[in-house]
Amino acid sequence: MLRGFHTATAGMIAQQRRMELLSNNLSNANTAGYKADQSSLRAFPEMLLSKLDATSVPTTKPLKFAQNQLIGPINTGVYVQDVAPKFSQGDMRPTGNDTDLAILNQTLPENASIFFTVENTDGTPRYTRNGNFALDSQGYLTTNNGLYVLDETSNRIQVNANSFTLQPDGTLLVDNVPQTRLGIAYADNANQLIRDGNGLYRASEGQQLTNAFTNQNISYQIMQGHIERSNVDSAQTMSDMTAAYRAFEANQKVIQAYDMSMQKAANEIGRIN
After folding, report:
1. How do residues 137-174 score in pLDDT, each as one tens digit?
2. Helices 234-267 and 2-27: crossing angle, nearest 10°?
3. Strand residue runs (E) in 140-254
4. Which among 79, 81, 95, 178 is positioned nearest to 130, based on CA atoms?
5. Distance of CA 181 to the CA centre of its chain
């Protein structure tokens, strides 16, 4: 019975983590470039139960032979095995602002993705799909939280004009004169990226992603005056939250039933009337 307590508790903890993940997705449904997190549940490793016993042989000198009788496997609960963003394409929303940029995926291998490259506060590169950019007082192209957008040579992009034009390949034009090209990074396995907050990602172990322009096997388009919306499906997320709540509630009732059984065993079994 005590094992049942642990199993039901593990289920509640897993569903609580899943509910937190879904709630975070839903709260970012209107965040530009946000990629919804998805989780996978996995059962703890099974245990094979066996019964240790001994058989006595009726002889003048009693003999006992050890026996190992298999009972069968038992599962010890469930846990959230992995949490990873889903890098599917979000819808494009026109804004009319020249500084709003969006990446439109065209041809990409499975699990691959491409990103804008920005400079973090510590000078290291970060990667984002949120193209809600702006020009600061010095004419630098920055993110909405003040990080510098980088070009293909990892330099900050400074626009010495009030407006600019961006070509589909990321080349930035001022008065029809090419100035620089956006730094577009390519990840052949985006699931290995680490979420760094505020819609930013980083490569593991201080590595940097490769330049997408040099990869001939992919195709994409940079859209000016557009924002990529979050890929969160609000209706599906609400449905998943309801399912997680009901699973949590079911495990809670199992614990209550076990608790009542334990109380009955402690108070009534063996009572002398």
Report:
1. 899 999 988 999 999 999 999 998 878 999 999 999 99
2. 160
3. 141-142, 148-149, 165-166, 171-174, 177-181, 184-187, 194-195, 200-202, 210-211, 219-224, 226-228
4. 95
5. 30
Q: How many CB atoms lie within 10 A of CB 22?
A: 25
Other Cβ atoms less than 10 A from the Cβ of 9: the count is 15
Backbone angles phi, psi at 259, to 5 degrees: -65, -40
| 8 Å CB contact between 74 and 49 | yes
**pLDDT tens by residue, 69-94:** 676 666 677 878 788 899 999 999 99
| Nearest of 90, 121, 127, 120 to residue 226 by alpha carbon | 90
User: Phi and psi at residue 88, in whole multiples of 5°?
Assistant: -75, 160
- Spatial distance between the Cα atoms of 81 and 123, rounded to a whole number of angstroms: 33
Nearest to 211 by CA among 122, 151, 128: 151
Q: How far apart are CA 69 and CA 49, in angstroms?
A: 9
Which positions ≥6 away from 84 have C-beta within 8 Å? 37, 38, 191
- Cα 184 from Cα 117, distance rounded (Å): 6
Coil, strand or helix at 207: coil
Our CA dihedral for 230, 235, 239, 245, rounded to 10 degrees, sits at 60
**3 state SS of 40:** strand
d(CA 13, CA 8): 9
